[in-house]
Design a protein that fits this description.
homodimer; about 210 residues; alpha/beta; Arc Repressor Mutant, subunit A; 2 domains; two-stranded antiparallel ribbon; 9 strands; about 45% helix; globular; binds nicotinamide-adenine-dinucleotide
C-alpha cells in the first residue's frame, strides 16, 4: 500500500513526463524532475521505490518507460466518466473546463434543482434534474461525483450517492461529509487553503 | 514551529467552533469535535498540544475560550485583502463567491488582459489591466494573490509578484511555479485531486 502523499504526487509526475515525452526528451535526471515538480529528489526516489527499481542511480530515468508505467498505474488509457452535482458558480466553471488537459477524465453528466438549468446542455454536458440521479449514475456506470452544491444540501445528496454505489466524492463544500469506509472523499476547501496561507505568512514569513 | 498538516486543520477547527458558538454550545468533547471535522481525536489532541493545554482530559473543551484562541491564531479579527489574477472561468466563480462565509478574507482587486473585462466591476470587485498590478498591490498593501491564469502566463506573472513583494500565492494552474524561500505557494490542483481519487478507487476500493 502506498502512502496517500505519494499517490497525490503521481499525477504530477505523469503530467511532467508527458510534457518531456512530447518535447522529445529521452532521459531525465532526478534533479531535473525535482526542479520541475517542486518535490525534493529524495522524496521522488522514495516514491518511485514503492514501485520497484524505476531508474538506475547516476544514470537518470528513461522518460518513455516511466511514462508507460505511470500511464498504467493511473489508468490513463481508460476514460473515467464523472458526474457533477450543483451547476452554480463553481460547478459552471468546472463544466466549462471539463478537465480538458487530461484525456482520462471527463464530466459526462451534471445535476441541479434549478429548472432554468435542467434539460439544457452546457459545454457539451447534459444537466439532469435530481430525480434522475440514480438512473444516470447506474446507466453511465459513474463511480465518482464532484459535489458543488450549497452546504446544507451536501449530506443528503451524499447519502443518496452511497446508496447508488458511488465510490468517490470530490467535495468542494466546506463541511466534512460522513461516508462509510468503502467510499473515498477528497476535500477541496478553498477557504481553508487561503486561511492556511495567511497563517504561514503571519507566522513564518521572515524565515 | 507547527507542522503544515496541523496548520491546514486550524481553519477547520475554527469553522466548526464558530458553528457551535452560534448554536449556543458551551462545551465540546474531543469525540464530538472529531466526528464533525473527520479528524481522529488523537490527532486533535496532538494538534492542540502545540498550543499548550487547551482543555482538560475527560472534561472536554470550552467552546468560547478555544474559539477566542483560534480567532487570534488565525488572525480572524483582521481583514486580509487578496488580489486575483485571471478573471476567466475559475476566476469569475471565485469573484462571485468572494469567500462570503468567512469575514476575514476578501478579494479586493482583480486583474486581467481582456479589454472587455478591465475597467469593469464584478461582484463589487474592480478589474484592473495588468499594467496596474504593481501600483494596486502597493497601494492596497496586498500580500496574497490568487492565480487563475493560463499555464503559460503563470511563471512570468509570479516573477512580477515576487518583485512586488507579495508573500503568498494560491496557485490554480497545473504547473509548479518557482519562488524564493520568502514566498509561500499553496497549489490547488483540481486535475490532481480527481486523478488521485481515481487511483485510490482503482487500487483500494474493496478494502
Ligand atoms: N464559488 C467558489 O468559488 C467557492 C469557493 C469555496 C467554496 N465553495 C463551495 O462550493 C459550493 C458551491 O458554491 P457556488 O459558489 O457554486 O454556489 P452557487 O449557489 O452558485 O451554486 C450552487 C448550485 O447548486 C444547486 N443546488 C442547490 N441545492 C441543490 C440540491 N439539493 N441538489 C442539487 N443541486 C442543488 C443550485 O441550483 C446552484 O446551481 C458551496 O458549498 C460553496 O460553499 C465555492
Ligand atoms: N476552470 C476550472 O475548472 C479549472 C480546473 C482546473 C484547473 N484550472 C486552471 O486554472 C487556470 C484558469 O482556468 P480557467 O478555466 O479559468 O481559464 P480561462 O481561459 O477561462 O481564464 C483565464 C483568464 O486569464 C486571463 N489571462 C490570460 N493571460 C493573462 C495574463 N498574461 N495576465 C493576466 N490575465 C491573463 C484571460 O483573459 C482569462 O480571463 C488555468 O491555468 C487552468 O489550467 C481551471
Amino acid at each position: 500500500k502506498i502512502p496517500k502523499a505519494t499517490a497525490k504526487r503521481l499525477p504530477l509526475y505523469y503530467r511532467y513526463l508527458t510534457f518531456l515525452h512530447n518535447a522529445g526528451k529521452q532521459k531525465v535526471s532526478s534533479t531535473e524532475l525535482s526542479e520541475a515538480v517542486k518535490v525534493d529528489s529524495a522524496t521522488i526516489r522514495r516514491d518511485f521505490s514503492y514501485f520497484g527499481a524505476l531508474g538506475k542511480r547516476g544514470y537518470g530515468y528513461d522518460v518513455d518507460s516511466l511514462l508507460a508505467f505511470f500511464a498504467k498505474t493511473l489508468n490513463q488509457d481508460h476514460l473515467t466518466n464523472v458526474a457533477l452535482i450543483g451547476v452554480g458558480n463553481l460547478g459552471h466553471a468546472l463544466l466549462n473546463y471539463n478537465f480538458r488537459q487530461t484525456n482520462s477524465v471527463r464530466i459526462s453528466a451534471a445535476f441541479d434543482v434549478n429548472p432554468d438549468l435542467t434539460g439544457t446542455i452546457q459545454s457539451g454536458v447534459p444537466i439532469y434534474p435530481m430525480d434522475e440521479l440514480e438512473t444516470q449514475i447506474k446507466d453511465q456506470q459513474i463511480d465518482i461525483v464532484i459535489l458543488t452544491v450549497p452546504t446544507q444540501a451536501a449530506q443528503d445528496i451524499t447519502d443518496r450517492l452511497i446508496k447508488a454505489n458511488v465510490h468517490g466524492i470530490l467535495n468542494f463544500t466546506p463541511i466534512r461529509i460522513s461516508v462509510p469506509d468503502t467510499v473515498r472523499v477528497q476535500n477541496v476547501d478553498l477557504v481553508n487553503e487561503l486561511q492556511t496561507l495567511i497563517y504561514f505568512i503571519d507566522h513564518y514569513s521572515n524565515q
